[in-house]
Protein: Branched-chain amino acid ABC transporter substrate-binding protein
Organism: Faecalibacterium hattorii
Amino acid sequence: MKKMITRRNFLAAAGVVAAAGVLTACGGSSSSAAASGAASGAAASGDTIKVGVLGPLTGDVSVYGQAVVNGATLRLKQANEEGGINGKQIEIISMDEQGDPTQAVTCFTKMCDQGITALVGDVTTAPTLAVAAESADYNMPMVTASATAESVTYDAETDTVNGNVFRATFTDPFQGVKMADYACQKLGYTKAAVIFKKGADYNEGLAENFVKEFEAQGGTIVDQESYSDGDVDFKTQLTSILGKGPETVFCPNYYQEVGQILAQAESIGLTVPFLGGDGWDGLEGYATAEQLKDSYFCANYAKGASADFESAYKAEYGEDYPNGFAPLGYDAATTVLYGIQAAEDAGLEAGSDEYKQAVIDAIAGGTIEGLTGTFTFDEHHDPVKSTAILTYIDGKPELKEMF
């Protein structure tokens, strides 16, 4: 039987120390279709239900945070336009944590003081781990759109499920395994190399699981190369890979660095196809069509999958949706709404312990009709759904198949 985690144990497992105090990054905003202005400490004020939306709206990873927050906010606004939850409007409390774990915890506790009943967030792994640890004491229903580290929802070493935390995206291990299976089963590769950033949960998680699964499928990993945060010259690692003669290179890194790696690989004559994970979303602006030829990556969403969402996003924000994090934010909000609907149908008091537990129980046992697919949650609170495999046509990502 899985154990449910306590805040003390979560902090110890994640190695997170959360600082108290209000930081300017958590200024945030509060709005709904029915009301706006300063929030009170109550979870429901009149005919509103408060939902937090947390992400890095500024800083190095704001390209992901803004997409998630926009996608989630769009979905919550649509719910209000459709009449809300049993006539109650959703009041959105949104805050910017700047990609910093300590500030993320401060933002979360401030949201709790303002009376949220559930949280959409956080976005990247380190802040999400910090907020998940803090949220355990509150038993706050929490759905991250995009944090992929396995430990966000489940500690494998202690076999402990983080009972109040769910995610809309797939995990690092899942992505690594999927891309190894695709490389072997669909592309027929038998020799692969790996290049990844060390010291980062996302990059190391994908790399480790790709290697294990590729070898389990009968393939050979001819070389594993790593680099450090801040590195911009990858030619030493790429030259080593070139000398080992791989058929493909797995590069589970974020798109800015992938663009640099592909350019430098081309410059030394390493022209085999590269493979990647969802961190490649947005890569087309950082690499040429020739560098991307015959490359593949996995993602939660493929452009064109939902014309309604894409047109609604453009109408709301004046631009096309920026990357696959926006539909994941949308689906995280859809998941939260699903749970809130169950708690409201049960006639429970918003913000009460019973209410929050009802939200959690409904999500755990529910079926979510999302943009990224119809999904349920497994025993670790991870979504069960198919993966979109994308390739590049004339330098632009296109859906190859669901796998």
In short: The first strand starts at residue 3 and ends at 4.
